[in-house]
Amino acid sequence: MSLPGVTSDAAELEPPDAAVPGLVLLVDDEPLLLRSLRRILEAEGHRTAMAASAAEAVRWFHDPDLAVVLLDLLLGPTHGLELLDRLRAERPEVEVIVMTGDASIESAVGCIRRGAFDYLAKPFGDIYRVKTIVAQALERRSLVQRNRELEEELRGRGAAPALIGNAPPMRALQRTIASLHHNESHVLVQGESGTGKELVARALQANSPRAAEAFVPVDCGALPETIIESELFGHEKGAFTGALGNAGLFRIADKGTLFLDEVGEIPPSVQAKLLRALQHKEVRPVGSTSTVPVDLRIISATHRDLAGMVKSGAFRTDLFYRLNVVRIEIPALRERREDIPLLVHHFLRKHAGERSPVEGIETDALELLSRADWPGNVRELENVIESALALARGPKLGVADLPRSRGRAGVAAPSLEHLPLDLQAYEHAALERALRESRGDARVAARQLGIGRSTLYRKLAHHGLAGRSHRDDSELTIR
Ligand SMILES: Nc1ncnc2c1ncn2[C@@H]1O[C@H](COP(=O)(O)OP(=O)(O)OP(=O)(O)O)[C@@H](O)[C@H]1O
Ligand SMILES: [Mg+2]
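That is the input. Now the predicted structure with magnesium ion docked in place:
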């Protein structure tokens, strides 16, 4: 299915190439004018898309390639100014050129004040002037981008991972991360499974004064209570194999950042020792009589309601306050659905290999994905795109390529009528199967089950399957 009135193939993927200047969206309710503009701009080598109404235009607002919008101000029921404001708010990096028959100076000035790049009065005295203005808008855009890149390089932020999202809470999150770049406070990141807690932790680290130092992740939910203390603080007698086990992660992360993932799973006995280490900035390796100084920043993450755990006594209040100097909450994906198209494009680029026949996604498939609830959040969405890509024949992902559970139209869910209602038993069986099929590889098993690795570890422990995985694959004990 293609969008009415839209002839561009902009939803398809272009190879990342600095020479491709981005997409020019033409918004006007006069089809004739749209076509002439398109002809002129395409002759200049621009990629264009056309929209004959506000509703059609809005569909392109989240296209990551969108670079310039030529916007008719007198656009049906939704006045173009509203679209201008929306674009400025949602895509501040996109340049907008307004066009209108109302060639009064006030409206021109008003638009520029509201953030438009320039103004074209209709009827055009010289329609070819549009070439010059679009070229200038693209030029400014690339200058702004280049400046931003240089600034980031100067601040040593080159390696910061891409945190995709334009929804207001995600933009607020990006601003928080940027504003913390001189700050070394401990940070607590809260969010449901798969919302991007680790990604945010890495972004915080890459954007901090400790960016050049180590980032050491430790999954507290995956470590059995008996070894967590020596993993964190080290062990005198070297009873554990490998230097990691001996030195302890605190010392490995010295001067850098320690990422305590699933911090809510740390047992009370270790909570006390963790608090001591943070208060005194030193650790005492298990079995040792002396302490070792450490200097690190702790970023911790949890999907749990840690404040609630404090109230119920499951988590130490004093430790909570130490860890929770800055708190970051990542909203669930269903609370920021407008980010789904951006994320889908991002994951298509990330996972479509060079030889993949897939170049984009059909609109109806994208709409289906945007409507789904995503209990496993961004991770689940990424898994769906990755597995759809593996089987799709292209050139665009369609509804038929998506897994049934994503609400594929016309395909009924398998009937559960004759099965016993015992969720625990299903979960146990699913875990066993995933362990078997992945040969104990936590990464693969978690992906198959559509859950995060820490959730997997927790569930394995709950079902008494944890020991087995530790024996099968040492990777399961850490990371
Ligand atoms: N905003 C985002 N932009 C791009 N990729 C994202 C974003 N959020 C999450 N991801 C991707 O989704 C996957 C899951 O993210 P991450 O591991 O950070 O989530 P998590 O909250 O730590 O999950 P879990 O609770 O399961 O451990 C990763 O591959 C990550 O790169
Ligand atoms: Mg995680």
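The pocket of magnesium ion (ligand 2) is lined by residues 197-198, 261, 452, 454 (CB under 6 Å).
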